[in-house]
């Protein structure tokens, strides 16, 4: 309040001084009706310099003046979508908002082992939008007795426990067998996952052989892909059997998902959904959005995600929304029009009701093809 009152007082004084100098200048140049001057008298240099100084001061104070919270359509020049994006993920401000976690992450002894809770603190920061994290000069801890060899088959009979640093604080289990017993659908048993993307049970399924047939009929190659929220990497593993390279974005939410992807000979990307995809423009043939992309994502954040997918897809590339979950009314009024903003060709658009649904929940499986340059 005191700063604002001070600025207002300086502005008032500057305006008064400007008016006085202007009156002085006008009074010195008034023409008499009897003897008009042959030439207008020149304004002294020191007055011109003072005017320039006052005007510069006014401009500077105006820039420092705090802006009001009330904005109108006539005064706001910043694009509305840019304002929206700044509220969703303002650059670097998320790290500033969680200074305690960032301080804990950056408190370490250089050239020695990183703190034991580094992974959990890093993931907490990433999930809160603080990404990319600052670089550090410490050594990450590795498993004490890892296996000497790893399988080349992306569907091994089991994953080696010795290659994972099991944390009691972060994980509910200390072995893959425990995770399989607690929830077999998490994907930590690769031998049970081999038919997941090759079988057809209902209209919501899109078997990979059918996907290749669709691409072949459209004379479109499938070589490079991205699986968003891909869990343990089963989709990437299946595509690897067809000589297609797919990288998987995944987080270690309660289980070592990134380690499981890597143990299958695949590439995990430890990035959150709100981050810009770490892929160059127009280079991918396919982007699949798995179970992580669902109605719990705010509609505005989902819109930015879809347009970032559009950025990395090449012309003729495919976006696959696999079992997108929402309420039926939201699909019609919110998500359907949102997806339609991309202007993609609908190759497949299938919906199905959730079993025993009380609130009208439905699933959507959509395969959309990006058109040529607009």
TrEMBL record:
InterPro entries: Prob_Methyltransferase (IPR053223), Put_SAM_MeTrfase (IPR004159), SAM-dependent_MTases_sf (IPR029063). It is a single-pass membrane protein; Single-pass type II membrane protein. The keyword Protease does not apply. Residues 1-22 form the signal peptide. The keyword Transferase applies. One of its GO terms (biological process) is methylation. It is found in: Endomembrane system; Membrane. Pfam families: Methyltransf_29. Keywords: Glycoprotein, Methyltransferase, Signal, Signal-anchor, Transferase, Transmembrane. GO terms for cellular component: endomembrane system; membrane. One of its GO terms (molecular function) is methyltransferase activity. Belongs to the methyltransferase superfamily. This is S-adenosyl-L-methionine-dependent methyltransferase. It comes from Quercus suber. The lineage of its organism: Eukaryota, Viridiplantae, Streptophyta, Embryophyta, Tracheophyta.
């Amino acid at each position: 309040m005191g700063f604002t009152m001070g600025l207002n007082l300086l502005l008032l004084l500057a305006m008064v001084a400007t008016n006085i100098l202007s009156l002085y200048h006008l009074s010195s140049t008034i023409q008499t009706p009897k003897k008009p001057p042959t030439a207008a008298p020149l304004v002294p240099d020191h007055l011109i310099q003072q005017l320039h100084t006052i005007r510069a001061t006014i401009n500077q104070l105006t820039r420092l003046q705090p802006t009001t919270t009330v904005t109108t359509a006539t005064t706001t020049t910043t694009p509305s979508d840019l304002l929206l994006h700044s509220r969703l993920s303002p650059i670097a401000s998320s790290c500033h908002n969680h200074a305690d976690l960032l301080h804990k992450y950056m408190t370490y002894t250089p050239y020695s082992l990183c703190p034991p809770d580094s992974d959990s603190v890093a993931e907490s920061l990433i999930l809160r939008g603080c990404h990319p994290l600052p670089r550090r000069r410490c050594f990450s801890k590795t498993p004490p007795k890892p296996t000497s060899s790893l399988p080349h088959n992306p569907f091994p009979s089991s994953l080696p426990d010795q290659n994972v640093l099991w944390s009691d604080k972060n994980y509910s289990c200390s072995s893959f067998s425990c995770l399989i017993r607690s929830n077999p659908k998490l994907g930590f048993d690769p031998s049970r996952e081999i038919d997941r993307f090759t079988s057809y049970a209902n209209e919501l399924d899109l078997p990979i052989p059918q996907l290749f047939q669709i691409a072949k009929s459209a004379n479109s190659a499938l070589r490079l892909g991205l699986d968003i929220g891909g869990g343990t990497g089963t989709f990437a593993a299946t595509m690897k059997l067809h000589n297609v390279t797919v990288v998987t974005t995944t987080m270690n939410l309660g289980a070592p998902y990134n380690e499981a992807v890597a143990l299958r000979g695949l590439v995990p990307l430890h990035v959150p959904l709100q981050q810009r995809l770490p892929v160059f423009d127009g280079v991918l043939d396919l982007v699949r959005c798995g179970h992580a992309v669902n109605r719990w994502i705010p509609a505005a954040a989902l819109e930015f995600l879809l347009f970032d997918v559009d950025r990395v897809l090449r012309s003729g590339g495919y976006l696959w929304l696999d079992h997108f979950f929402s309420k039926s009314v939201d699909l019609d009024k919110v998500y359907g029009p949102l997806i339609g903003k991309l202007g993609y060709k609908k190759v497949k658009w299938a919906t199905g009701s959730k079993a025993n649904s009380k609130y009208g929940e439905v699933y959507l499986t959509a395969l959309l093809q990006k058109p040529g340059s607009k």
